[in-house]
């Protein structure tokens, strides 16, 4: 079982890179003081993992936050993603360089294919392999890839993805996919762990929150970590960023982990990886 110790703890990827298992997501954070402040608060709290994407339109703000932080660049795990319109071999190489320029960084810690665009993701992956061999990226992975996408990619790829970032929350567990990824040493990662805020409208976790004297958000995030899933809750509020990291003074029992797992409805808040049109 993964050892969950503190806010800067890591899970080890199959190439030996250590990836912090708690990060800050910046989806929908404005490319100005909002994203800069959020990242500064996160880094001050102890976070060492920031997740952005070219489509979020805030890479410049993320870069500015890192440049102006008191934390050294090499101590921050920075993730971005290639967008669908940029997929393909040459266009991915260009898109990566553009992301680096916006971020004002020399390298990325992790670069992901954002969605499995049919007919393009294999060429996109070839570009990521090239960038990885050139040491411009420390780890490469995918996002929103179902098992059949992964099997198809791995049938021709030189490198197995190190990470698969998926929508993951109590209503969408996809245990079979988690198991498949684990079997192939692909690190599972959650996006939208709070169901885009909808988790707070449900009373299903109130009893567990009371039992452990924690917030519903803290219960969900701790469940992520105990399942060996890296998690990147998004917030631009200082108190929420701090609260989301208060996860290391309690342990959810196996019985309660199973209870949360059993809430699974195979319900997506985001798009279906098998049927998206962007």
Automatic annotation (TrEMBL):
Entry annotated with the keyword NADP: yes
Matches recorded under InterPro entries: AKR (IPR020471), AKR5G (IPR044500), Aldo/ket_reductase_CS (IPR018170), NAD(P)_OxRdtase_dom_sf (IPR036812), NADP_OxRdtase_dom (IPR023210)
The keyword Oxidoreductase belongs to this UniProt entry's keyword annotation: yes
GO molecular function terms listed in the Swiss-Prot or TrEMBL record: oxidoreductase activity, acting on the CH-OH group of donors, NAD or NADP as acceptor
Residue numbers annotated as active site: 56 (proton donor)
NADP-dependent oxidoreductase domain boundaries: 28-264
TM region(s), chain numbering: none
Positions with a binding annotation for substrate: 114
Superkingdom of this protein's organism: Bacteria
Keywords: NADP, Oxidoreductase
Record-annotated site: Lowers pKa of active site Tyr: 81
CDD domains reported in the protein's UniProt record: AKR_AKR5G1-3 (cd19157)
Family membership noted in the UniProt record: Belongs to the aldo/keto reductase family.
Name recorded for this polypeptide: Aldo/keto reductase
Lineage: Bacteria, Pseudomonadati, Bacteroidota, Flavobacteriia, Flavobacteriales
């Amino acid at each position: 079982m993964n050892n969950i110790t503190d806010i800067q703890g890591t899970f080890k990827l199959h190439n030996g890179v250590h990836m912090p298992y708690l990060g800050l997501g910046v989806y929908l954070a404005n490319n100005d003081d909002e994203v800069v402040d959020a990242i500064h608060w996160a880094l001050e709290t102890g976070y060492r993992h920031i997740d952005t994407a070219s489509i979020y339109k805030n890479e410049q703000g993320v870069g500015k936050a890192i440049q102006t932080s008191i934390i050294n660049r090499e101590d921050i795990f920075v993730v971005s993603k290639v967008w669908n319109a940029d997929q393909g071999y040459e266009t991915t190489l260009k898109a990566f360089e553009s992301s680096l320029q916006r971020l004002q960084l020399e390298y990325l810690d992790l670069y992901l294919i954002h969605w499995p665009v049919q007919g393009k993701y294999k060429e996109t992956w070839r570009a990521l392999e090239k960038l990885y061999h050139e040491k411009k990226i420390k780890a490469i992975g995918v996002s929103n890839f179902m098992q059949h996408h992964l099997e198809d990619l791995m049938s021709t790829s030189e490198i197995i993805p190190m990470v698969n970032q998926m929508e993951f929350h109590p209503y969408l567990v996809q245990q079979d996919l988690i198991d498949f990824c684990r079997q192939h040493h692909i690190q599972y990662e959650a996006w939208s762990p709070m169901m885009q805020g909808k988790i707070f409208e449900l009373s299903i976790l109130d009893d567990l929150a009371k039992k452990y004297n924690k917030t519903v958000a803290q219960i969900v995030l701790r469940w992520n970590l105990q399942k060996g899933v890296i998690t990147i809750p998004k917030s631009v509020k200082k108190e929420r960023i701090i609260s989301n990291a208060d996860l290391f003074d309690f342990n959810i029992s196996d019985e309660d982990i199973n209870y949360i797992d059993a809430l699974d409805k195979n319900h997506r808040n985001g798009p279906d990886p098998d049927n998206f049109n962007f």
